[in-house]
Amino acid sequence: MKISKQQFEKWVAEAIDNVPEKFQERINNLVFFVEDRPNNEQLRKAKMQRSKDFILLGLYEGYHQSKRLDTGPVFPDRITIFKKSIESLCETNKELKDQISKTVRHEIAHHFGSDEKGAQKAGRE
User: Fold this and answer.
1) CATH number of the domain that 65 lies in?
2) pTM for the full model?
3) What count of Cα atoms within 13 Å lies in the side-chain half-sphere of residue 65?
4) Sheet holding 30-35, edge to edge
5) 121 vs 18, higher pLDDT
């Protein structure tokens, strides 16, 4: 399933807006990006190799809030959502929107300090 980057970004924004308010209020110094696919550096950070068996849908890069020190201004943490990776798993618009939402929630869970198991749970809720 393929859609325009503009539509994909709109659905990412909607997924962010639909994160429960109790979490939105606690999101701090975080920016979102949409890229087609992860680059080699992002794959390295995720401890993955380019493979058909493993698809990186999103990536949180930063220091989760539980480990953050108040040291003054710092660059924002970032979440990148990978458009072509998500599209490769979906056959309908509904599946695509659902997967975007799951991926956004999963990566935000990492922002709050969840390990992979906890982030997977957050992505399913």
Assistant:
1) 3.30.2010.20
2) 0.86
3) 14
4) 30-35, 77-82, 58-61
5) 18
